[in-house]
Records
---
Amino acid sequence: MTTQSFLSTLEIFKKLTPAELGALERKMVEKKYAKGDSIFFEGDPAEHVWFIKEGHIKSMVHSANGKDQTLCMVGSNNLFGTCCCFGAGSYACHCVAETDSVVVSIPIRDFTEVMDKNPEVSKALVLQLSNRLRQSKDMQTFEQETVEKRVLHILVSLVEEFGNTIPLTRREIAEMVGTTVETCIRTFARLEAEGLVVSTRGKITVKSVQALVDQREKD
């Protein structure tokens, strides 16, 4: 798959002409990152818009108590790390390659020009950012809930991102919900005993999303 054909698969660029896609492709850079590599840090100048070609990327912030809090995990063919950078001047989160990854960056000034000329791109961007903000708001709603409810909520959100097979470990889920690995393992043991999920090396399979939702909504 060429870089230009990759751009044409992204929902946000579906309405662009081949000439417009070609012009944008000449402005962008493709780069590989090994698992654990930082792509940019919280507070770095927000100079690019980022998309995932392969792998998945974790966005996190450093909290006041000294711990890193995972905000979201984003899979291939998606925008990442850009929710709060338009007009802000700096990135609001630290983005790390959670797997070996290939990402594409476009200078934000060139991306803004495309938005100005193509309202459809602006609409698609607003929709994607709205979905990310909704997920963030949902996370805040569940912050005071039990660990099990937080895990259930994260799993439902991740199914939207990755499908029923989530390419994450229980350790990574623990980071996202803000609990210890041991507590997360015990929680997954209960969920597996109830037939809701199956966790194997490097992935978690959700048997039924609706069953997770029903369990989450129980008093």
---
Amino acid sequence: MAWAHAHGIEHLLNDPGKPTRNAYIESFNGKFRDECLNEHWFETLAQARDEITAWRRTYNEQRPHSGIGRIPPAAFAAQHLLQKVT
């Protein structure tokens, strides 16, 4: 919280017991925990960084997401950029 405050970032919290107010991030957090954090026993910070980076790359570059037409976010972003150019 101190870092956010020092950088002029306002930290907003949902009301306790109201996860539906930010369902997108709650869904992401659940997937991250189930698919990455619960699957590995991190013995070093470097190992944690490597495993999390690999999971993030798969999540963003390979894994299809139902909310954006069953394609990975990286492909969706590339399509969006092409549409803006043309």
---
Amino acid sequence: MTETAKLIKTITKGIQEKKGRDITIVDLNQIEGAITDYFVICQGGSPSQVEAIAESVGTICSKEMHEKPVGVNGLGNNQWVAIDFVNVLVHIFQPETRAFYNLEELWEDAKLTKIPNID
């Protein structure tokens, strides 16, 4: 397993620990001009859950992989938090904001992998 694959798995674990829903991994490797290799997109049901998911992802990636994001944007309003791990960008949305921006469709040529929700 590559380091990037391990990072994506760890990010997914951090999302699931805070009950993040509808996780989609977007593989942008074959997309010319893409800003990163992968998106990991998910949603939380409230601003506080979005913030909790973001904190969980940061904590677990630091603890398990010694990876820290190069940037985090959107904390405070918690409608959409983006966490930049250079080759993986994590997007944590509230449902309305996710539907509005519809990142999965924006990169329609990318391979999408949907992770089943854990209840």
---
Amino acid sequence: MMRIFNLLFLSFLFVSLQSSANYTLPAYTKLTLDNGLSIYLMEQKEVPLIDISVVIKAGAIEDGNSAGLNYFTARNLTLGTQLLSKSELDQTIDFVGANVFSSANLEFVTIGASLASKDSLKILPIVRDIVTSPRFEQNEFDKLKQRHSLNLQQGKERPSSVINNYFNRLIFGEQGYGSIIKGDSQSIDSLTLEQVKQHYNHWYQPNNSAVIVVGDFDSKQMKQQLAKLFSGWKNTKKITSSRVKKTPKATQSKLLLVDKADARQSTFLIGGKGIERSNENRVGISVINTILGARFTSWLNDELRVNAGLTYGARSRFRSYSQDGSFAISTFTKTETTVEAIDLALKTYARLWEKGIDDKTLASAKAYVKGQFPPKFETSTELASLLVNMYGYQFDESYINTFEQQVDSLTIDKTKQLIKQYFPQENLQFVVIGQADAIRKDLQKYGEISEVNINDIGFGINK
């Protein structure tokens, strides 16, 4: 009996030590093919699944005056290859129960697939063909345009789905990080298949791309398989990309009022400039933001939801890109309590400077953040997504491997420094979507007001 007890105790101790140990990114292999294609391989043997992602460094920041071009190009890739029509492609993927997708953001495109490891020899060549030899069929292109335009129109019925587009334009202007990823109905309607082909031919090249594979495979065999699949992909021209310049901080408070005449509530964002992904203080800032508005027991949620009953939820967030970023407080409330909710959000936000963070609150947030961190990277899909972001946003694993040490090292004095340096306090920017006639007059106290209608074509915001 004593021996069993000792074994149980040792097992418990081992698990406890493991759970308290600092999380580090699992080992992975990185190599580059002769054509410049980067390859990341991370073996994860727990389940017989594989996640593959092909990342292209082409984002909406390169759209210029053709908003949505990069997104629409990515969407067209999965509408068939030179060997398989869309229906044939869908049937082949569905037959083995795989999932293939494409996505695009401001800085890069991802073509991904989740599959059973036993099907890799069948699905990986299809992923290769989707990326390197898309079909670009006029009929499928036209049908996608029609569906996408309808989705854009429907999105205007949900202010939360479009408010970030208005906010980004207000913070960053019409180009760069103010670009509208999915475009608007006018820009999408004007897109041609020839534009998509030209965009594809410029950006989709191996020396501008990476293949990331995570899951149940043998690295040596996978390396050989990928080299065979992608070595024939050629670089056809020199890639010229626009360097995104950092937008200066606002010099005055501004409020964009987006009129939605049938709205029964107001949805709003309040914020300003944030931080880039590589910021050395990103971890400490995230802990402070957790206290302010990134968990259910945050200051903002407590005050606006629990105590005042003005909303079902209030949050704050930092959205970071490779060269810049934004900060925003977000919530929604009844039309008649719009100003009350904004005032309370601002009052709660001001606690960062007026009262600061005490030891008990900081300790609670640090424990919460450390507890939430490892579960974000448990599955092969989550790890693949992490490697995608590392490549696309140009940061390395030091953020992951030193995360818990950085959390532990955060002190009260350090929080004061970070709040002063990185949380925008003056010249805040506001976006409010709601019934303009009912709230316009009362919003004037927050800053210079400009106004657009949510049904207008485009976003109509000039920096």
